Every structure is written in structure tokens, then in C-alpha cells.
Amino acid sequence: MIFSEKVAAEVARYLLQIKAIKLQPANPFTWASGVKSPIYCDNRKILSYPEIRAYVKSQLTVSIREKFEKPDVIAGVATGGIAHGALVAEEMGLPFVYIRSNVKVHGLNNMIEGELKQGQKVVIIEDLVSTGGSSLKAVAAIRGENCEVLGMSAIFTYGFDIAERNFNDAVCELVALSHYDVLINVALEENYIQEKDFELLQTWRKNPGWIKLKS
User: Fold this and answer.
1) Hey, CA dihedral for 15, 20, 22, 28, is it positive or negative?
2) Which CATH number fits domain 5-195: 3.40.50.2020, 3.40.920.10, 3.40.718.10, 2.70.50.60?
3) Which helix or strand (DSSP H or E) is residue 174 part of?
4) Hey, is 152 helix, strand or coil?
5) Which of 43, 65, 68, 182 is the right S-S partner for 127, CB 3.0 to 4.6 Å?
6) φ and ψ of 189, to 5 deg
7) Domain boundaries, the chain
8) What is the pTM of this model?
């Protein structure tokens, strides 16, 4: 779910402006899975731009207040969601924890860092959602501590069908500030891409293996 069409377009403009998102249909990036991707997203770059950082923080906060019951705790997904989650927690005056990608192999063997008490209600902050696999691993970790996950608020989602199915199966609501479809429309309107690029980008989103097969 997109939080707001207006906000989605504004976030997309910001991400393109600071090159947190790069579009290279003619020279695609290669993901770890081997899939050729015409888009590269690194939302950690937002942190280097105070005005944009403040805007994203405020909109994540508003999305939580409008879409979810008031949480007891904000949690950030490692690594990209940690800083953004901490900013939101500060804005809302709430405790913050973060969720490791894997259990710590020494010390207390923690998956969750920070203080989380049984029965607390948690909203998780994620910077980017692709298939939803790593995001939902974080959801499972919070639930494993006998806490309630109210939902997840993310900066950007590719909007893959598999992610929608995964979140539905996990019974976890995802609210994103911006979305791939909005992004490529803004990119076309503001001349980051040409019409022929737009058509390829649309095709890739529906079938991420398409470029790999054609290359």
C-alpha cells in the first residue's frame, strides 16, 4: 500500500535527485541472485541530505500515526532501516530496537538489539522492500519475542507480486512512502529516462528475470 500518491511522487523525486535510486536500462546492475536489474536503490544516501532526511522521517512518522495503532516500540531492520527507524523513534518519543539480519554468533546470541518486552506493540521500519524475504524475517524475529507487529513502514518498494503474496501470507501490513510504478513515471516526466526506457522498466517490474533472459 502506498501511503499517499503525493508523498510517493515527492519521495521519488528526492531519490532520483540525490541518486539514491539509479536507473540504467541500457547497462543493468546485477543482483546477488544473478538477476539483471535496471534499477539500483541505496536509501542510506538520504541520511547525507538533512532536508530530505527530515522529510522522510516526518512522512514515515505520519504514515505510522495514520495507518497503525500507536506502537510501544519502533524497530529498524538492519542495516538500512536502523538509522531511519531511530530517527522516527526520536520523533515519536518511543523506545527503539533494531533487528539483525542473523543471530549474533557470540555474546548473548541476540537477533534483536535493545530492550523489547513481551506483549509490546511494534512498528518496523524498512528502507527498501524487494521480495519481502529479509523484511519478513525481521517480523518473525519480533513475533518470536511474544510481541505484536502492527505493521511495517518502508521508504520504497519495488511492488513485486511475490512481495505482496509474502506479506499477505505473513499477515503483515506494509505501507510504503514510494513505489516503483510511481518512480518510473516521475523519472519519465522529469527526463531521467526516455519513453523506450520506460517500456523496458515496466516489463522488468512485471518479470524481473526478463532482462537476464534477453542479455
Assistant:
1) negative
2) 3.40.50.2020
3) strand 174-179
4) strand
5) 43
6) -60, -35
7) 5-195
8) 0.92
